[in-house]
Every structure is written in C-alpha cells, then in structure tokens.
Amino acid sequence: MDTIKKYTHDGVTVVWKPQLCIHSANCVKALPEVFKPKEKPWVQPEGSTGKAIIDAVKRCPSGALTYETEQKIADTSEENSENIQVNLIDKGPAIIIGNCTITHPDGTTEVRERRASFCRCAKSANFPYCDGSHKNA
Fold first, then answer.
1. Which is nearest to 56 in space by CA: 32, 92, 84?
2. pTM above 0.70, yes or no
3. Beta pairing partners, 115
4. Residue pLDDT, tens place only, 77-100
5. From CA 51, how far away is CA 42, in angstroms rounded?
6. Fewer beta carbons under 10 A from the terminal one: N or C of the chain?
7. What does the alpha-carbon distance between residue 48 and residue 28 come to, in Å, rounded to a whole number?
8. Are residue 12 and residue 66 in the same domain, yes or no?
9. Residues 42 and 97 in one domain
10. Which residues, 6 or more positions from 84, have their beta carbon under 8 angstroms from its beta carbon?
C-alpha cells in the first residue's frame, strides 16, 4: 500500500506521496519556510499562505506533492485545462502536466492527476516513473 501524508493550513491540504518523489527540491526552493526536508514533519504549511503553498506545489515535477482545497483559490486553470503539456528536462524526466491515464504493458491502467514524471534513462527502480536515478547515471 502506498504511503500518503496530508498537511492542512489556510484552506489548503498538501498531499504527499513519498513513493513518487524524485527529490528535485523544487518545493524547497519555492517555499523553504514550508518545505523543510531536514525537519519532521518536513511539510509545515503554517509557514505560509494557501495561495503560496499551491504555487509551490504546482512546481513539483513528479506529482509527489498535490493539493486539495476547501474552497477555490485563485488560478485553478491548470486543473481545468484540457491541454496536456509535456516538458522534457535535459538529462532528466519527461514531465506531463495535466490529468492523464497511463496504460501499462500488462493492460492495467491508472490515472495521474495534475502531473506525472516519466523516466527517460531506463534506470528508475520505479519505471516508468522517474525516481531521480538519472542523477547517478
């Protein structure tokens, strides 16, 4: 069973799925007063506002961090967009932004909401998803 942790403040719940994290540190760079990897808990949402937390979470390339809101907070265009965006990171993953359905070779499917980060180096222990192994390749 996959681990899911939730942290709530200012009408926003940060949802963290550690098994998806590729340790890009985009969250830490965006909002170090909330994302503190050397502390426990490492997510401390009371350090900022709901809007700032959402903006930082949207920078997560893997989908390990997502958010839920009690009420709509300005700029939810990413979730409502029908366009899927693909960003190729130099020597890194292919990041899909937008909701997508993934069909695996065995025929099973899963839905990824908001974003997914796909391995391009074939070294990921969590293939087809990126786990940051490209950094050691």
1. 32
2. no
3. 97
4. 444 456 788 888 888 888 888 888
5. 19
6. N
7. 13
8. yes
9. no
10. 96, 97, 98, 100
